[in-house]
Protein backbone atom coordinates (compact mmCIF):
# COMPACT_ATOMS: atom_id res chain seq x y z
CA UNK A 1 0.00 0.00 0.00
CA UNK A 2 1.36 3.38 -0.94
CA UNK A 3 0.98 5.94 1.81
CA UNK A 4 2.54 8.72 -0.18
CA UNK A 5 0.31 11.31 -1.72
CA UNK A 6 1.98 11.94 -5.04
CA UNK A 7 -0.41 14.50 -6.45
CA UNK A 8 1.78 15.60 -9.33
CA UNK A 9 2.25 12.03 -10.49
CA UNK A 10 -1.43 11.27 -10.17
CA UNK A 11 -2.37 14.33 -12.18
CA UNK A 12 0.15 13.40 -14.83
CA UNK A 13 -1.19 9.86 -15.03
CA UNK A 14 -4.81 10.95 -15.10
CA UNK A 15 -4.14 13.54 -17.77
CA UNK A 16 -2.24 11.00 -19.81
CA UNK A 17 -5.31 8.80 -19.75
CA UNK A 18 -7.85 11.46 -20.50
CA UNK A 19 -7.37 11.98 -24.25
CA UNK A 20 -8.39 8.40 -24.99
CA UNK A 21 -11.55 8.71 -23.02
CA UNK A 22 -12.34 12.07 -24.48
CA UNK A 23 -11.60 10.95 -28.02
CA UNK A 24 -13.76 7.92 -27.59
CA UNK A 25 -16.52 9.91 -25.98
CA UNK A 26 -16.38 12.68 -28.57
CA UNK A 27 -16.60 10.18 -31.41
CA UNK A 28 -19.50 8.52 -29.76
CA UNK A 29 -21.26 11.82 -29.27
CA UNK A 30 -21.62 11.96 -33.03
CA UNK A 31 -22.58 8.40 -33.57
CA UNK A 32 -24.52 7.22 -30.59
CA UNK A 33 -25.43 10.14 -28.37
CA UNK A 34 -27.94 8.16 -26.37
CA UNK A 35 -25.43 5.61 -25.19
CA UNK A 36 -22.25 7.57 -24.90
CA UNK A 37 -23.29 11.03 -23.87
CA UNK A 38 -23.11 10.25 -20.17
CA UNK A 39 -19.57 8.92 -20.50
CA UNK A 40 -18.54 11.95 -22.51
CA UNK A 41 -19.99 14.39 -20.01
CA UNK A 42 -18.48 12.57 -17.09
CA UNK A 43 -15.09 12.66 -18.79
CA UNK A 44 -15.47 16.44 -19.18
CA UNK A 45 -16.37 16.82 -15.54
CA UNK A 46 -13.40 14.75 -14.50
CA UNK A 47 -11.10 16.78 -16.73
CA UNK A 48 -12.33 20.02 -15.19
CA UNK A 49 -13.01 18.85 -11.70
CA UNK A 50 -10.37 16.31 -10.83
CA UNK A 51 -7.31 17.74 -12.50
CA UNK A 52 -8.16 21.40 -12.25
CA UNK A 53 -5.30 22.56 -10.09
CA UNK A 54 -1.94 20.91 -9.90
CA UNK A 55 -0.95 22.82 -6.77
CA UNK A 56 -4.22 22.04 -5.12
CA UNK A 57 -2.84 20.51 -1.94
CA UNK A 58 -0.34 23.32 -1.42
CA UNK A 59 -3.09 25.88 -1.97
CA UNK A 60 -5.28 24.09 0.59
CA UNK A 61 -2.44 24.02 3.10
CA UNK A 62 -2.43 27.84 3.03
CA UNK A 63 -6.20 28.11 3.50
CA UNK A 64 -7.23 28.37 7.17
CA UNK A 65 -10.63 26.89 6.29
CA UNK A 66 -9.08 23.75 4.80
CA UNK A 67 -8.63 20.53 6.82
CA UNK A 68 -5.06 20.50 5.51
CA UNK A 69 -4.23 23.91 6.98
CA UNK A 70 -1.70 23.73 9.73
CA UNK A 71 0.81 26.16 11.09
CA UNK A 72 3.01 23.61 12.79
CA UNK A 73 5.60 21.18 11.49
CA UNK A 74 5.95 17.56 12.58
CA UNK A 75 9.19 18.59 14.36
CA UNK A 76 7.21 21.00 16.51
CA UNK A 77 4.95 18.16 17.66
CA UNK A 78 7.71 16.55 19.72
CA UNK A 79 7.76 13.17 18.04
CA UNK A 80 10.47 10.66 18.76
CA UNK A 81 13.26 11.03 16.13
CA UNK A 82 12.76 7.56 14.62
CA UNK A 83 9.03 8.09 14.37
CA UNK A 84 9.59 11.44 12.72
CA UNK A 85 11.86 9.69 10.23
CA UNK A 86 9.08 7.20 9.49
CA UNK A 87 6.55 9.99 9.00
CA UNK A 88 8.79 11.76 6.50
CA UNK A 89 9.55 8.47 4.77
CA UNK A 90 5.78 8.15 4.17
CA UNK A 91 5.90 11.45 2.32
CA UNK A 92 4.11 13.50 4.96
CA UNK A 93 5.63 16.98 4.83
CA UNK A 94 3.38 18.79 7.25
CA UNK A 95 0.61 17.78 9.67
CA UNK A 96 -3.03 18.24 8.71
CA UNK A 97 -5.31 20.27 10.94
CA UNK A 98 -6.58 17.25 12.90
CA UNK A 99 -3.00 16.06 13.36
CA UNK A 100 -1.84 19.46 14.54
CA UNK A 101 -4.75 19.78 16.94
CA UNK A 102 -4.93 16.21 18.22
CA UNK A 103 -1.26 15.29 18.59
CA UNK A 104 -0.45 17.57 21.57
CA UNK A 105 -3.41 15.98 23.43
CA UNK A 106 -2.56 12.49 22.22
CA UNK A 107 1.01 12.79 23.46
CA UNK A 108 0.35 14.84 26.62
CA UNK A 109 1.77 13.79 29.95
CA UNK A 110 -0.23 13.01 32.06
CA UNK A 111 -2.51 11.29 29.55
CA UNK A 112 -5.58 13.04 28.22
CA UNK A 113 -8.66 11.31 26.88
CA UNK A 114 -9.81 12.47 23.46
CA UNK A 115 -12.93 12.30 21.33
CA UNK A 116 -12.08 13.53 17.85
CA UNK A 117 -14.10 14.16 14.74
CA UNK A 118 -12.64 15.25 11.43
CA UNK A 119 -13.74 14.52 7.92
CA UNK A 120 -12.82 11.42 5.95
CA UNK A 121 -9.35 11.25 4.54
CA UNK A 122 -7.80 14.08 6.56
CA UNK A 123 -5.28 12.05 8.54
CA UNK A 124 -7.08 10.77 11.65
CA UNK A 125 -5.62 7.27 11.30
CA UNK A 126 -2.13 8.66 10.92
CA UNK A 127 -2.70 10.81 14.03
CA UNK A 128 -3.78 8.00 16.33
CA UNK A 129 -1.21 5.57 14.94
CA UNK A 130 1.49 8.12 15.78
CA UNK A 131 0.11 8.30 19.31
CA UNK A 132 -0.01 4.51 19.59
CA UNK A 133 3.62 4.16 18.52
CA UNK A 134 4.78 7.05 20.71
CA UNK A 135 3.29 5.57 23.86
CA UNK A 136 4.88 2.13 23.62
CA UNK A 137 7.59 1.28 26.14
CA UNK A 138 9.54 -1.26 24.06
CA UNK A 139 11.29 -3.11 26.88
CA UNK A 140 7.99 -4.05 28.51
CA UNK A 141 6.92 -7.16 26.66
CA UNK A 142 3.15 -7.17 27.01
CA UNK A 143 0.28 -5.44 25.18
CA UNK A 144 0.19 -1.74 26.00
CA UNK A 145 -1.92 -0.40 23.15
CA UNK A 146 -5.23 -1.76 21.89
CA UNK A 147 -6.84 -0.41 18.72
CA UNK A 148 -10.30 -1.61 17.68
CA UNK A 149 -11.68 -1.32 14.15
CA UNK A 150 -15.12 -2.36 12.91
CA UNK A 151 -13.90 -4.57 10.07
CA UNK A 152 -11.15 -6.99 9.25
CA UNK A 153 -9.99 -4.86 6.30
CA UNK A 154 -9.74 -1.71 8.37
CA UNK A 155 -7.78 -3.43 11.14
CA UNK A 156 -5.30 -4.75 8.60
CA UNK A 157 -5.01 -1.34 6.94
CA UNK A 158 -4.35 0.36 10.28
CA UNK A 159 -1.69 -2.25 11.01
CA UNK A 160 -0.06 -1.48 7.67
CA UNK A 161 -0.02 2.25 8.43
CA UNK A 162 1.55 1.46 11.82
CA UNK A 163 4.15 -0.83 10.24
CA UNK A 164 5.08 1.86 7.69
CA UNK A 165 5.33 4.55 10.31
CA UNK A 166 7.38 2.32 12.62
CA UNK A 167 9.82 1.45 9.85
CA UNK A 168 12.70 2.87 11.91
CA UNK A 169 11.43 1.48 15.23
CA UNK A 170 12.04 -2.28 14.84
CA UNK A 171 11.77 -2.70 18.62
CA UNK A 172 8.00 -2.07 18.46
CA UNK A 173 6.00 -5.26 17.89
CA UNK A 174 2.42 -5.61 16.73
CA UNK A 175 -0.19 -8.33 16.50
CA UNK A 176 -3.48 -8.55 14.68
CA UNK A 177 -6.51 -9.83 16.56
CA UNK A 178 -8.76 -10.63 13.62
CA UNK A 179 -10.70 -13.50 12.14
CA UNK A 180 -8.40 -16.30 11.05
CA UNK A 181 -5.66 -15.59 13.65
CA UNK A 182 -5.21 -18.63 15.88
CA UNK A 183 -3.30 -18.95 19.14
CA UNK A 184 -2.33 -22.21 20.83
CA UNK A 185 -3.93 -22.77 24.25
CA UNK A 186 -2.03 -21.03 27.06
CA UNK A 187 -0.35 -18.45 24.77
CA UNK A 188 0.04 -14.99 26.26
CA UNK A 189 0.39 -12.19 23.77
CA UNK A 190 3.66 -10.34 24.30
CA UNK A 191 3.52 -7.79 21.47
CA UNK A 192 3.25 -4.12 22.42
CA UNK A 193 0.36 -3.21 20.13
CA UNK A 194 -2.77 -5.22 19.37
CA UNK A 195 -4.96 -4.11 16.45
CA UNK A 196 -8.16 -5.97 15.84
CA UNK A 197 -11.90 -6.32 15.72
CA UNK A 198 -13.98 -6.41 18.92
CA UNK A 199 -15.14 -10.01 18.53
CA UNK A 200 -11.67 -11.49 18.31
CA UNK A 201 -10.29 -9.27 21.07
CA UNK A 202 -13.07 -10.35 23.38
CA UNK A 203 -12.45 -13.94 22.45
CA UNK A 204 -8.78 -13.64 23.30
CA UNK A 205 -9.45 -11.91 26.61
CA UNK A 206 -11.87 -14.70 27.59
CA UNK A 207 -9.25 -17.29 26.71
CA UNK A 208 -6.69 -15.29 28.71
CA UNK A 209 -4.41 -14.71 25.73
CA UNK A 210 -4.78 -10.99 26.18
CA UNK A 211 -4.60 -9.07 29.46
CA UNK A 212 -6.47 -5.78 29.11
CA UNK A 213 -5.52 -4.48 32.57
CA UNK A 214 -2.09 -3.35 31.41
CA UNK A 215 -3.35 -1.55 28.32
CA UNK A 216 -2.34 2.11 28.60
CA UNK A 217 -3.83 3.38 25.33
CA UNK A 218 -7.19 2.31 23.93
CA UNK A 219 -8.15 3.54 20.45
CA UNK A 220 -11.68 3.18 19.11
CA UNK A 221 -11.59 3.85 15.38
CA UNK A 222 -14.89 4.62 13.62
CA UNK A 223 -16.13 5.16 17.15
CA UNK A 224 -19.66 6.07 16.14
CA UNK A 225 -20.40 2.77 14.45
CA UNK A 226 -18.70 0.91 17.28
CA UNK A 227 -20.96 2.64 19.77
CA UNK A 228 -24.11 2.67 17.68
CA UNK A 229 -24.32 -0.83 16.23
CA UNK A 230 -25.78 -3.36 18.59
CA UNK A 231 -23.26 -6.19 18.08
CA UNK A 232 -20.21 -3.93 18.24
CA UNK A 233 -21.61 -1.89 21.10
CA UNK A 234 -21.99 -4.86 23.46
CA UNK A 235 -18.51 -6.12 22.68
CA UNK A 236 -16.89 -2.69 23.02
CA UNK A 237 -18.58 -2.04 26.35
CA UNK A 238 -17.34 -5.39 27.67
CA UNK A 239 -13.80 -4.63 26.52
CA UNK A 240 -13.99 -1.11 27.89
CA UNK A 241 -15.05 -2.47 31.32
CA UNK A 242 -11.89 -4.57 31.56
CA UNK A 243 -9.55 -1.63 30.92
CA UNK A 244 -7.88 0.10 33.87
CA UNK A 245 -9.23 3.46 35.01
CA UNK A 246 -5.96 5.17 34.03
CA UNK A 247 -6.00 3.89 30.44
CA UNK A 248 -5.97 6.68 27.85
CA UNK A 249 -9.16 6.55 25.74
CA UNK A 250 -9.00 7.84 22.19
CA UNK A 251 -12.15 7.88 20.06
CA UNK A 252 -12.01 8.83 16.38
CA UNK A 253 -14.57 9.13 13.61
CA UNK A 254 -15.65 11.32 10.72
CA UNK A 255 -19.23 11.35 11.98
CA UNK A 256 -20.95 11.34 15.37
CA UNK A 257 -24.65 11.73 15.92
CA UNK A 258 -25.53 13.76 19.01
CA UNK A 259 -26.72 10.57 20.74
CA UNK A 260 -23.44 8.79 20.06
CA UNK A 261 -21.44 11.82 21.15
CA UNK A 262 -23.42 11.96 24.41
CA UNK A 263 -22.75 8.29 25.01
CA UNK A 264 -19.05 8.68 24.16
CA UNK A 265 -18.72 11.56 26.60
CA UNK A 266 -20.44 9.41 29.20
CA UNK A 267 -17.98 6.51 28.94
CA UNK A 268 -14.82 8.55 28.33
CA UNK A 269 -13.82 10.43 31.47
CA UNK A 270 -13.08 14.15 31.10
CA UNK A 271 -12.34 14.03 27.41
CA UNK A 272 -10.93 16.78 25.28
CA UNK A 273 -13.39 16.99 22.38
CA UNK A 274 -12.10 18.09 18.98
CA UNK A 275 -14.67 18.62 16.26
CA UNK A 276 -12.97 20.29 13.37
CA UNK A 277 -15.79 21.18 11.02
CA UNK A 278 -19.43 20.42 10.67
CA UNK A 279 -19.79 17.14 8.85
CA UNK A 280 -21.58 18.62 5.87
CA UNK A 281 -18.54 20.72 5.07
CA UNK A 282 -16.49 17.63 4.53
CA UNK A 283 -18.07 17.37 1.07
CA UNK A 284 -16.04 20.28 -0.27
CA UNK A 285 -13.71 18.23 -2.42
CA UNK A 286 -16.28 15.84 -3.80
CA UNK A 287 -18.51 16.71 -6.75
CA UNK A 288 -21.87 15.00 -6.28
CA UNK A 289 -24.14 14.02 -9.16
CA UNK A 290 -27.04 11.76 -9.89
CA UNK A 291 -28.46 9.96 -12.88
CA UNK A 292 -32.21 9.57 -13.04
CA UNK A 293 -33.22 6.17 -14.35
CA UNK A 294 -36.68 4.63 -14.58
CA UNK A 295 -35.87 1.04 -13.80
CA UNK A 296 -33.14 -1.09 -12.30
CA UNK A 297 -32.17 -2.12 -15.85
CA UNK A 298 -31.69 1.52 -16.80
CA UNK A 299 -29.47 1.92 -13.76
CA UNK A 300 -27.39 -0.95 -15.01
CA UNK A 301 -27.19 0.62 -18.48
CA UNK A 302 -26.15 3.98 -17.04
CA UNK A 303 -23.41 2.23 -15.12
CA UNK A 304 -22.07 0.36 -18.13
CA UNK A 305 -22.18 3.57 -20.19
CA UNK A 306 -19.85 5.28 -17.76
CA UNK A 307 -17.65 2.22 -17.21
CA UNK A 308 -14.84 3.61 -19.39
CA UNK A 309 -14.80 6.77 -17.33
CA UNK A 310 -14.85 4.90 -14.04
CA UNK A 311 -11.65 3.14 -14.94
CA UNK A 312 -9.69 6.33 -15.72
CA UNK A 313 -8.60 6.25 -12.11
CA UNK A 314 -10.23 3.71 -9.84
CA UNK A 315 -13.83 3.45 -8.73
CA UNK A 316 -15.82 1.81 -5.97
CA UNK A 317 -19.44 0.86 -6.63
CA UNK A 318 -21.59 0.45 -3.52
CA UNK A 319 -24.60 -1.87 -3.44
CA UNK A 320 -27.09 -2.25 -0.62
CA UNK A 321 -26.87 -6.01 -0.24
CA UNK A 322 -24.39 -8.80 -0.85
CA UNK A 323 -26.91 -10.34 -3.23
CA UNK A 324 -27.14 -7.19 -5.30
CA UNK A 325 -23.33 -6.83 -5.38
CA UNK A 326 -23.08 -10.44 -6.52
CA UNK A 327 -25.71 -9.95 -9.23
CA UNK A 328 -24.11 -6.75 -10.51
CA UNK A 329 -20.64 -8.17 -10.62
CA UNK A 330 -21.84 -11.28 -12.44
CA UNK A 331 -23.81 -9.26 -14.99
CA UNK A 332 -20.99 -6.79 -15.63
CA UNK A 333 -18.46 -9.60 -16.02
CA UNK A 334 -20.76 -11.45 -18.41
CA UNK A 335 -21.07 -8.27 -20.46
CA UNK A 336 -17.28 -7.98 -20.72
CA UNK A 337 -16.62 -5.29 -18.07
CA UNK A 338 -13.74 -6.16 -15.78
CA UNK A 339 -14.85 -5.75 -12.16
CA UNK A 340 -13.81 -7.15 -8.80
CA UNK A 341 -16.15 -7.86 -5.94
CA UNK A 342 -15.56 -7.65 -2.21
CA UNK A 343 -18.36 -8.75 0.06
CA UNK A 344 -18.71 -10.40 3.43
CA UNK A 345 -19.31 -13.75 1.73
CA UNK A 346 -15.68 -14.11 0.67
CA UNK A 347 -13.13 -15.91 2.78
CA UNK A 348 -10.53 -13.86 4.64
CA UNK A 349 -7.88 -14.79 2.05
CA UNK A 350 -10.15 -13.80 -0.83
CA UNK A 351 -10.98 -10.46 0.77
CA UNK A 352 -7.33 -9.63 1.33
CA UNK A 353 -6.45 -10.76 -2.16
CA UNK A 354 -9.15 -8.58 -3.78
CA UNK A 355 -8.19 -5.53 -1.74
CA UNK A 356 -4.49 -6.01 -2.50
CA UNK A 357 -5.21 -6.25 -6.22
CA UNK A 358 -7.32 -3.11 -6.01
CA UNK A 359 -4.65 -1.22 -4.08
CA UNK A 360 -2.03 -2.28 -6.62
CA UNK A 361 -4.27 -0.97 -9.42
CA UNK A 362 -4.68 -4.44 -10.94
CA UNK A 363 -8.42 -4.02 -10.49
CA UNK A 364 -9.89 -0.68 -11.53
CA UNK A 365 -13.51 -1.07 -10.52
CA UNK A 366 -14.55 -2.66 -7.24
CA UNK A 367 -18.12 -3.61 -6.40
CA UNK A 368 -18.85 -3.86 -2.71
CA UNK A 369 -21.31 -3.33 0.14
CA UNK A 370 -21.03 -1.16 3.24
CA UNK A 371 -18.24 -3.44 4.42
CA UNK A 372 -15.85 -1.03 2.65
CA UNK A 373 -17.74 2.18 3.34
CA UNK A 374 -15.49 3.24 6.19
CA UNK A 375 -11.85 4.04 6.54
CA UNK A 376 -10.52 2.18 3.51
CA UNK A 377 -7.83 4.33 1.97
CA UNK A 378 -6.96 3.74 -1.67
CA UNK A 379 -5.26 6.78 -3.07
CA UNK A 380 -6.34 6.43 -6.69
CA UNK A 381 -10.08 6.15 -6.09
CA UNK A 382 -11.48 9.08 -8.07
CA UNK A 383 -15.12 8.03 -8.31
CA UNK A 384 -17.60 6.46 -5.92
CA UNK A 385 -20.85 5.18 -7.40
CA UNK A 386 -23.86 4.51 -5.24
CA UNK A 387 -25.62 1.90 -7.31
CA UNK A 388 -28.04 1.81 -4.39
CA UNK A 389 -28.31 4.74 -2.03
CA UNK A 390 -27.59 3.84 1.60
CA UNK A 391 -30.60 3.32 3.86
CA UNK A 392 -30.96 2.46 7.52
CA UNK A 393 -33.02 -0.38 8.98
CA UNK A 394 -36.16 1.73 8.70
CA UNK A 395 -35.53 2.22 4.96
CA UNK A 396 -34.70 5.92 5.48
CA UNK A 397 -31.63 7.78 4.15
CA UNK A 398 -28.49 6.74 6.01
CA UNK A 399 -26.61 10.02 5.76
CA UNK A 400 -23.61 8.95 7.86
CA UNK A 401 -22.99 5.94 5.65
CA UNK A 402 -23.39 8.16 2.56
CA UNK A 403 -20.68 10.47 3.87
CA UNK A 404 -18.33 7.60 4.71
CA UNK A 405 -18.95 5.94 1.33
CA UNK A 406 -18.22 9.03 -0.73
CA UNK A 407 -15.27 9.75 1.55
CA UNK A 408 -13.45 6.86 -0.15
CA UNK A 409 -12.60 9.48 -2.76
CA UNK A 410 -11.43 13.08 -2.33
CA UNK A 411 -8.85 11.99 0.23
CA UNK A 412 -6.29 14.31 1.76
CA UNK A 413 -7.24 17.33 -0.29
CA UNK A 414 -7.75 15.56 -3.59
CA UNK A 415 -10.84 15.99 -5.72
CA UNK A 416 -13.33 13.21 -6.13
CA UNK A 417 -16.68 12.45 -7.70
CA UNK A 418 -19.73 10.73 -6.30
CA UNK A 419 -22.32 9.44 -8.76
CA UNK A 420 -25.70 8.32 -7.45
CA UNK A 421 -28.09 6.17 -9.44
CA UNK A 422 -31.73 6.83 -8.71
CA UNK A 423 -34.45 4.58 -10.09
CA UNK A 424 -37.67 5.15 -8.17
CA UNK A 425 -39.64 7.74 -6.25
CA UNK A 426 -38.47 6.21 -3.01
CA UNK A 427 -34.79 6.43 -3.97
CA UNK A 428 -35.37 10.00 -5.20
CA UNK A 429 -36.76 10.79 -1.76
CA UNK A 430 -33.66 9.30 -0.13
CA UNK A 431 -31.47 11.45 -2.37
CA UNK A 432 -33.44 14.56 -1.43
CA UNK A 433 -33.13 13.69 2.26
CA UNK A 434 -29.37 13.35 1.88
CA UNK A 435 -29.25 16.73 0.12
CA UNK A 436 -31.27 18.30 2.88
CA UNK A 437 -29.21 16.74 5.64
CA UNK A 438 -25.94 18.12 4.27
CA UNK A 439 -27.43 21.30 2.83
CA UNK A 440 -25.80 20.47 -0.52
CA UNK A 441 -27.36 20.07 -3.90
CA UNK A 442 -26.60 16.82 -5.68
CA UNK A 443 -26.43 17.85 -9.33
CA UNK A 444 -28.63 16.22 -11.92
CA UNK A 445 -26.42 14.66 -14.56
CA UNK A 446 -28.48 15.32 -17.64
CA UNK A 447 -26.98 13.69 -20.66
CA UNK A 448 -28.92 16.00 -22.99
CA UNK A 449 -27.86 19.25 -21.46
CA UNK A 450 -24.18 19.74 -22.19
CA UNK A 451 -24.04 23.42 -21.27
CA UNK A 452 -25.43 22.79 -17.84
CA UNK A 453 -22.95 19.99 -17.24
CA UNK A 454 -20.05 22.13 -18.46
CA UNK A 455 -21.03 24.70 -15.83
CA UNK A 456 -21.27 22.07 -13.10
CA UNK A 457 -17.82 20.79 -13.94
CA UNK A 458 -16.18 24.18 -13.37
N1 LIG B 1 0.26 14.82 7.06
C1 LIG B 1 0.03 14.15 5.95
N2 LIG B 1 0.63 14.50 4.78
C2 LIG B 1 0.36 13.83 3.64
N3 LIG B 1 -0.49 12.78 3.55
C3 LIG B 1 -1.11 12.39 4.68
C4 LIG B 1 -0.90 13.04 5.93
N4 LIG B 1 -1.66 12.42 6.87
C5 LIG B 1 -2.33 11.43 6.23
N5 LIG B 1 -2.00 11.42 4.92
C6 LIG B 1 -2.53 10.50 3.89
O1 LIG B 1 -3.87 10.91 3.63
C7 LIG B 1 -4.68 9.78 3.40
C8 LIG B 1 -5.87 9.79 4.36
O2 LIG B 1 -5.39 9.68 5.69
P1 LIG B 1 -6.12 8.79 6.80
O3 LIG B 1 -6.43 7.42 6.26
O4 LIG B 1 -5.31 8.90 8.05
O5 LIG B 1 -7.49 9.60 6.91
P2 LIG B 1 -8.71 9.37 7.91
O6 LIG B 1 -9.09 10.73 8.39
O7 LIG B 1 -8.36 8.34 8.92
O8 LIG B 1 -9.84 8.83 6.91
P3 LIG B 1 -11.21 8.02 7.24
O9 LIG B 1 -12.15 8.95 7.94
O10 LIG B 1 -11.72 7.63 5.89
O11 LIG B 1 -10.81 6.85 8.10
C9 LIG B 1 -3.80 8.54 3.58
O12 LIG B 1 -3.40 8.08 2.31
C10 LIG B 1 -2.61 9.06 4.36
O13 LIG B 1 -1.44 8.35 4.06
Q: Can you put this structure into words, describing what you see?
A:
This protein has 458 residues and is α/β, with parallel strands linked by helices. 44% of the residues lie in helices and 14% in strands. Bound molecules: adenosine-5'-triphosphate (ATP). Residues 3, 5, 92, 95-96, 99, 120-126, 254, 375, 377, 379, 407, 411-412 line the site of adenosine-5'-triphosphate (ATP).
Number of distinct beta strands: 14
Cofactors, ions, other ligands:
adenosine-5'-triphosphate
Q: Radius of gyration, rounded?
A: 22 Å
Low-confidence stretches: 1-35, 448-458
Q: CA-to-CA gap between the ends?
A: 32 Å
* Mean pLDDT value: 83
Strand content: 5-15%
Strand order of the biggest β-sheet: 3-4-2-5-6-1-7
Estimate the helix proportion, in percent: 40-55%
Global geometry: globular
Structural class: alpha/beta
Q: What is the makeup of the main sheet?
A: 7 strands, parallel
Please count the helical segments: 18
Keywords: ATP-binding, Cytoplasm, Helicase, Hydrolase, Nucleotide-binding, Nucleus, RNA-binding
Catalytic activity: ATP + H2O = ADP + phosphate + H(+)
Subcellular location: Cytoplasm; Nucleus
Domain Helicase ATP-binding: 105-274
Amino acid sequence: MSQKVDWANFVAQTEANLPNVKDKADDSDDEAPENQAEASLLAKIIRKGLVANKNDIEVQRQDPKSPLYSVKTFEALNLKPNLLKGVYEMGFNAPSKIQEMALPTLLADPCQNLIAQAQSGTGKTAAFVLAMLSRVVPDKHYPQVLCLSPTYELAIQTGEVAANMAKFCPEIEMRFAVRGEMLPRGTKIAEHIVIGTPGKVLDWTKQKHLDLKKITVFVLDEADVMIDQQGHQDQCIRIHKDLSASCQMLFFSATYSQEVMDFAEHIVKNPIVIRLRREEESLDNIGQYYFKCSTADEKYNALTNIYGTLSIGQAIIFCRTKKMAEWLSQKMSNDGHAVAILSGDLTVEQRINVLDRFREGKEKVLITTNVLSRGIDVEQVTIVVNFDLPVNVEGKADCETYLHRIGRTGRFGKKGLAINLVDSDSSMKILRDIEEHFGRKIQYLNADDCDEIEKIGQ
